[in-house]
């Protein structure tokens, strides 16, 4: 009889510890499985160097040639509007679709003129639309209070229009980053379950789009963003 009591007591203790562990695990997470999240905000993207080249003048009989001037181009650093829609598959992992819109400036600097003309910089604005798909991993084990860090990565599609929207260039991006989400309010009822803010730093690689070199190398740059979080 004592043996049965000991076994029953041990089973109850085990079940209690298991339930307490599950409750503790749930308490350490901020996002419900099968829930949606909308993030709306802005980003600041770093400049994108597009390389340098020379404009040669070749004689009628072929080489030798003379460089008339040097050209160095870049996309200046610029702000953008960001919107993201995430679906939380689990308490840790989410799939996130993003949209960005911006009007960057393409700056082309002409230097080392053969006839010693002064250096000039030509600046042209263009429209940029970007669509992204990312996987997001929330690092719940590192959570403190209502703040949780996260990492993400994925790929994207670029559509850029310039010269009065008469020329359209398309390209691809890859991105990865790290950030933090801070929930300001949580509720177990209603349509809107949570409100908060997020901030992240990103690393981008882009290919094609507005590009001056024929071999279309991978261009890299950084970005930082901040947004309002609305959870459903």
Description:
- The protein is mainly beta.
- The protein has a domain at 32-46 and 79-105 and 124-231: Porin.
- It has one helix and twelve strands; from the N terminus they run H-E-E-E-E-E-E-E-E-E-E-E-E.
- The strands form two sheets. An eight-stranded antiparallel barrel has the order 1-4-5-8-9-10-11-12.
- The longest helix is centred in the first third of the chain and has 26 residues, at 2-27.
- The two termini are 53 Å apart.
- The model is unreliable at 1-28 (pLDDT under 50).
Helix-strand layout with pairing:
Blueprint (H helix, E strand, L loop, with lengths): L1 H26 L7 E11 L2 E12 L2 E14 L2 E11 L4 E10 L2 E7 L8 E6 L1 E12 L8 E16 L4 E20 L7 E15 L10 E13 L1
Antiparallel strand pairs: 1-4, 1-12, 2-3, 3-6, 4-5, 5-8, 6-7, 8-9, 9-10, 10-11, 11-12
Tags for this model:
63% strand, 12 strands, disordered N terminus, mainly beta, Porin, four-stranded antiparallel β-sheet, elongated
Whole-angstrom Rg: 27 Å
Residue fraction in strands: over 45%
One letter per element, helices H and strands E, the order comes to HEEEEEEEEEEEE
Query: How many individual β-strands?
Result: 12
Strands of the biggest beta sheet: in what spatial order?
Answer: 1-4-5-8-9-10-11-12
Brief characterization of the structure:
11% of the residues lie in helices and 63% in strands. The chain is mainly β and 232 residues long.
């Amino acid at each position: 009889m004592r043996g049965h009591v000991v076994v029953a007591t041990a089973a109850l203790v085990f079940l209690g510890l298991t339930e307490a562990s599950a409750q503790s695990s749930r308490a350490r997470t901020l996002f419900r499985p099968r829930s949606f999240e909308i993030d709306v905000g802005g980003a600041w993207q770093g400049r994108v160097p597009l390389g340098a080249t020379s404009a040669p003048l070749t004689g009628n009989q072929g080489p030798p040639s003379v460089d008339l001037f040097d050209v160095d181009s870049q996309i200046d650093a610029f702000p953008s509007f960001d919107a993201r829609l995430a679906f939380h598959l689990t308490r840790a992992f989410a799939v996130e679709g993003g949209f960005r819109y911006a009007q960057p400036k393409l700056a082309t600097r002409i230097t080392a003129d053969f006839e010693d003309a002064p250096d000039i910089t030509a600046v042209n604005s263009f429209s940029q639309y970007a669509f992204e798909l990312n996987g997001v991993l929330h690092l719940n084990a590192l959570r403190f209070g209502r703040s949780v860090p996260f990492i993400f990565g994925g790929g994207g599609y670029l559509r850029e229009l310039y010269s009065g929207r008469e020329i359209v260039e398309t390209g691809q991006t890859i991105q990865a980053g790290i950030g933090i989400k801070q929930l300001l309010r949580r509720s177990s009822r209603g349509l809107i379950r949570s409100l908060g803010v997020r901030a992240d730093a990103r690393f981008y690689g882009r290919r094609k789009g507005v590009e001056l070199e024929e071999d279309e190398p991978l261009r890299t740059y950084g970005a930082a963003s901040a947004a309002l979080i609305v959870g459903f």
